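Task 17 of the worksheet. Students: predict the tertiary structure of the chain below and write it out as C-alpha cells. Keep your answer in the requested format; marks are given for formatting as well as content.
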Amino acid sequence: MRMAASIKHPSPVLLGVSFGGMIGIEIARHLAIEKLIIISSVKSAGELPRWMKVTGRFNLHKILPTRSYKFIEKFDNDRLGVTNEAERNLVDHYRKNADPVYLDWAVHQVLTWKNDWYPGNIVHIHGEKDKIFPVKNLRPTHIIEKGTHLMIINKGEELSQCINSVL
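Model answer:
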C-alpha cells in the first residue's frame, strides 16, 4: 500500500520483473491500473515451484542460508540463466551488494506468498528456459524462446518487441 500511494498517475501501466511482478500484483489490489506487465514472475502462489512451496510452508528458509556462497554460485548462476562473463559479473555484483536484511525479507515474502488473485489486465511474459519459475507451472500470455530468468538482460530486443506490442 505504501508503494501504491506513491503512484500519482490516474491509470498507470505497471511493469515488474521476478519479485517485482509479485509486488505489481499486490499494488494492483489497491490501484486502478491500465495494465500490469510481469516478466520472469508468477501470478499466484499456485504457480510457485513445489520446492518453494515446501520451503515456505515449513519455514526452511529461516534455518537454511538465503545468501549465495562461493561453492553454490555455479548452481545459482545456472538457475538464473547466466550465459557469459558480463552476466556473471552483474550477478556477482548483486550478491556482494544486496542488503541482507532486504534479501531475507524478500525471500520470505516469495516463499510464503498466499496470493490467488491477479488483475484481468495482466500481461505475463516468461522465458521458455526459466529455471527459477519453470514455465511448465505457468500460463503466461507470452513465451520468449530460450529465455531464462535473466532474459531482461540477454533477450532485451525480444522483450521490447513484446512489450511494445501489448502497449
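Marker's comment: Residues 59 and 108 are 8 Å apart (CA to CA). The longest strand covers residues 122-127.
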